[in-house]
Amino acid sequence: MSIVSTSSAADDQLRPPVPPGSVTLRINGQEHTLRLAPWTSLLDALREYVGLTGTKKGCDHGQCGACTVLVDGKRINSCLTLAVLQEGADITTIEGLGTPEHLHPLQQAFIDHDAFQCGYCTPGQICSAQGLINEGKAHTEDEIRELMSGNICRCGAYVGILNAVKEVAEKELKMASCTCYGSHGHSSNS
Amino acid sequence: MNPFTLTRAASAEAAVRDFSSHDSPAYIGGGTNILDLMKENVAHPTHLIGLNKLPLNAIETTADGGLRLGATATNADTAWHPEVKQRYPLLNQAILAGASPQLRNMATNAGNLMQRTRCYYFYDTATPCNKREPGSGCAAIGGYNRIHAILGASEHCIATHPSDMCVALAALEAVVHVQGKDGARQIKFEDFHRLPDDQPERDNTLQPGELIVALELPKQGFAKHFSYLKLRDRQSYAFALVSVAVGLELEGATIKDARLALGGVAHKPWRDKKAEQLLIGQPATEATFKQVAEAVLKDAKGQGTNDFKIELARRAIVRALKQAAAGEQQASDVFTNSNP
Amino acid sequence: MSTDSNTKYVGKAPNRVDGPLKVTGTAKYAAEFDVPDLAYGYVVSSPVAKGRIRKIHADKVLGLPGVLHVFSHENVPGLAWFDRSYKDDVAPGGSPFRPLHDDEIKFNMQPVALVVADTFELARYAASILEVEYEVEKHETDIESKRDEGYEPGRGKTGYMPPQRREDADKGLEQSAHRIRHEYIHGAQHHNPMEMFGATVHYHPDGKLTIYDKTQGVYNCQQYITKIFGLSKDEARVVNLFMGGGFGSGLRPQYELFLSVLAALELKRSVRVTLTRQQMFSFGHRPHTLQTLELGTGPDGALLGLKHYALHETSRFEDYTENVVNWSGMLYKCPNVRLSYGISPLDVYTPLDMRAPGAATGSFALEVAMDEMAYEAGLDPLEFRRRNYAEEDQNKKAPFSSKKLREAYDEGARRFGWDKRPMAPRATREGNLLVGWGVAGGVWDASMQKAAAKATITADGRLTVASAAGENGTGTYTIMAQIAAETLGLPLEAVTVRLGDTTLPEAPLQGGSWTAASVGTAVKNTCEALGEKLLKLAQKMDDSPLKDAKPEDVEFVNGLIRLRKEPQQSVVLRDVLQVSGEREIEVDSSAMPNPVNMQKYSMHSHNVVFAEVKVDEELGTVHVTRVVNVVAAGRILNQKTARSQVLGSVVWGISMALMEETVMDHRYGRYMNHNYAEYHVPTNADVRGIEVYFVEEEDPHVNPLGVKGIGEVGLLGVAAAITNAVYHATGKRVRSLPIYLDKLL
Ligand SMILES: Cc1cc2nc3c(=O)[nH]c(=O)nc-3n(C[C@H](O)[C@H](O)[C@H](O)COP(=O)(O)OP(=O)(O)OC[C@H]3O[C@@H](n4cnc5c(N)ncnc54)[C@H](O)[C@@H]3O)c2cc1C
Ligand code: SF4
Ligand code: FES
Ligand code: FES
Fold this sequence. Notes:
Chain B: Residues 1-222 form the FAD-binding PCMH-type domain. Chain A has helices spanning 42-50, 94-97, 105-112, 122-135, 141-147, 158-175; strands spanning 2-6, 21-27, 30-36, 68-71, 74-77, 90-92. By secondary structure, chain A is α+β, with helices and mostly antiparallel strands. In chain A, strands 3-2-6-4-5 form a five-stranded mixed β-sheet, sandwiched between helices. In chain A, helix 4 runs parallel beside helix 6 (158-175). Chain B contains 13 helices and twelve strands. Chain B has helices spanning 12-20, 34-39, 75-79, 82-87, 89-96, 101-106, 109-114, 120-123, 165-171, 189-192, 273-279, 286-296, 308-326, and strands at residues 5-8, 25-28, 47-50, 59-61, 67-70, 175-180, 183-188, 211-217, 225-231, 242-251, 254-263, 270-271. In chain B, strand 4 (59-61) and strand 5 form a beta hairpin. Chains A and C meet through strand 1, helix 1, helix 2, helix 3 and helix 4 of A and helix 1, helix 4, strand 7 and helix 15 of C. The structure holds flavin-adenine dinucleotide, iron/sulfur cluster and FE2/S2 (inorganic) cluster (2 copies). Flavin-adenine dinucleotide is lined by residues 26-34, 36, 51, 71, 75, 98-99, 103, 106-108, 110-112, 114-115, 162-165, 211-212, 239 of chain B.
């Protein structure tokens, strides 16, 4: 028998909380001025302080993609950035893409292709798909699969997700006059 | 995660100054590693210095034909930069083999070099770890060490450096530009990361407060014959068990110049210069490659659960060299493992 | 004699009715309800596997402004005393774990304290610096060291069937011309639904609670909470409108529920507690299982003897049981069978049903063994299965209520092109890749539970149906809407479905693939009862053409009530409501399984899976390039959602075959890959080429809807088919999952 005395902090010196300050975030085109301490992640700011719970927390460690939002049009994991670091940026969440009454094409495509089951990864998948389309790098099915791989779906709705993203991306690309989706991707490695 | 204050630095000098005026400070780039570690109570800075406003995100050609990658440029912007794609496709592929699109949009080049090991025990404060808590012991030795080192480990630590990007940077002989209190200096990539020896808490040779400002790639990019081969437990969004970066210059079937570095096998990106010498002047054949692979792994040592990595690395080296010699890879917008 | 009708929804493929909420982030999960003056709880977990808590040094933490309380066994108020108060509906035999009950540490990552603070960040910080002193005792966590100590559980949980034997398995094996005997292993797996467990407890001014909890059974949770805390049902309403995946993890109340209710009651304040991803590894899991299978056949390939033994861990405090071996006495015809089963207690948390519990495990071993046996007997693996087709359930000695597995074999083989498969392993190569094909399948219970529902129609013709069933991705909202709309001939848009609330009629736990059958039947019965009421009202109308009609003479179609025989004789449903002057009409009803049919028939769903893999021989990497999964599961209510469930099952099977395993370091008795980065489940890049088919299977006996449930059967055989395909590709037989690349080097 041995005795251990632990706390999980590597440094267990008591430190007083840093008082919150005023932070202004531009979310879905609207400014929100919040009282936040530096330790609030963008994800927690959205969910717990602004009340935008569409952005999901699946791990809080950058390992699942459920928290994906767009910052200045680029997809990121909102759990691994601090809200204060996003002052001045344009943040788009799932709520900013569409509403039940006015669905975004990706949202409609996700419904049509049944690209979800429980729906918990879905807002992140859709924001990620919008990011993928903005990037314009995915030209084959394999490339969509790879570039959607930062979003885990435990329900395993990947077939639907691929088809939904493909449908919308194809349309967008057509507008940019380029269609190159084939059912087989190039292979670059093993 | 403990409380901390935060400032956002406007210049490199200001960042370095801010660092030296705080007790337990840390820089934060994309935040994808440091915030993760802070939430796990592994890192505990009380002051963060935000770098994402620094004017250090440019990617530009240097006077002698190389390429300078800003420290705060994101991994994604770096991978997809036209100069990188065209001239350093090995780097393009290595970056795209790592993490996920979202993480690459956040992760900075400097942060990628500085990211810490993914050793399970390092991450779990319920277990001993010399890297996290010097002197507490290494739980990975004799434990579950599937992702641990087979080369250059010590009795104090058998962790690996998890980066993909750095394996390519090692092969490409990048130079790290840093700025400290007392001015700027340059560190050769091979001298940047270190082996654990009896100080596993030190991942690299950066001095406290030194700020990485840029990475410089020399002119030679191995754009025709290269390969980045990454083996992992799933097709994407997973760290390497073993990865191999290869750059070759061929004259006919003869190897004129060669670079070879491994990821996932050691405390640092494992470039093997002796192996490169063994390649130079030789025919680009499987026989040569096998010999070289033997040489690289001559001193390899398994730790139990990771014993397989020795054989895996041997085969991966041969495959990557073959791919590079055949010129099979192309720089692309996507790295896919999907062979079939 | 219904003709043209666009209110026939059952069996079609309408989009999910809750789709718009889910894709816009509007659907609310447990930790997302906005309640005023919320405090946040953060759980402190034990770093040791066994021992005692000596002291919890809470003072330091309580000194932080904003920290409200540190709950632990040192200060938990007097609660229910007896074990049975902590027993939930699906608790196995034994004595359930009671959070913060005493100083004893029973398993690693056990919750030892809850720190509550004004903000999430502060609670998290305070939890991290809370100092706890433990006396550490020696633990045992390795089932491999217990090989000879398994015992057959006595006190089973509901649904557990003791393993069977028939005739003489040893003799059958002795008489066999071909025999095999092997051990099959898989490690522990954790459900890991995307949504982490969490609860928001709304403390109302009158002291009543509304508890938004992540659960697969709101009634189960209500019962648990009211018994423990001595509350009346009216004081503890439990709600779960959407669940971000369950897979079994929410069958039993998890400790976030207990802790958040405790904190809310003590602090008289609303509280939210969410677990971390790491803490998602601190409760139930699919147990690490060791199985031995012995098979023997005659010269013609007919099975003569079969022995199947399984051993897995349970906790020290409960006897967790699953039906691992029983399937082996049922899937194929065999005269001599011995099935046996052992469990062994270790210092871990009690395992917990995880998608197709027992069957996913058992069918993996059985179906790989069947492949090995086929090769031993020199038969094509599918042909071997056909030769041993079970026409009846030999375990129960009863006919199947329906079984279209043979049709599934035909369909699958045709779709997959099985007839082009060379028998010999290593026969097909593409560059560096070896190509292999494998087949396997499984059988799963088609069960039904008691369920109740309520239906309300309002004057504007809108119908609301309600039942406390859950929606965790299976499509419950949608299929209930389909059934209700079709039964009353209303457009789908006119139907609102309400679920997951203890103020609604009781429904069984969302598990075992029985929701469609149970709640679906209840909804149907309820809507039919409402239909009768509506008919009566219609008959009161002036000149009603339905005056003399009996309920069975009419049908509800396209917003009309009309005579079946003379469809032109109809009344408009909405007119009936208007004329009647009633503002709303409400009906309650329920559904029960039919005990006679249950006695008489064996009710099961079946499937068969064909898989193609490409294996890089040098590097050991396996790509699953094609999967055809054919399911015989009675009537399919919604082609779209049912297909999605089977697609998801295939992804689970790929996961189980190739990557999923929770690894324990037995020196610490602690799972080490307790996060989503190192506990691997497939990404989009791991999945390609999945085809799903349903064979038509009419079943008049199973339940009035003829459905068998689809959530679990699709997983069966997937891991085995992949394992068999790997053998076919490489000639290497892997008998332990997952097939990491190093197993093929
Ligand atoms: C789930 C997951 C999967 C991943 N998979 C992979 C993978 O497969 N391959 C791979 O290569 N990587 C992977 N990564 C790691 C990722 O690439 C790194 O986290 C990232 O590169 C770190 O960059 P950052 O800018 O976010 O660093 P930060 O987290 O901001 O900083 C990391 C460290 O660098 C220091 N630092 C930052 N900038 C500077 C500077 N300019 N000068 C000095 N010090 C500095 C910080 O103080 C900190 O200590 C993964 C990460 C996650 C979370
Ligand atoms: S390998 Fe290194 S990082 Fe891992 S436990 Fe040992 S000392 Fe710590
Ligand atoms: S919650 Fe951010 S990646 Fe999982
Ligand atoms: S839909 Fe449930 S996790 Fe993706």
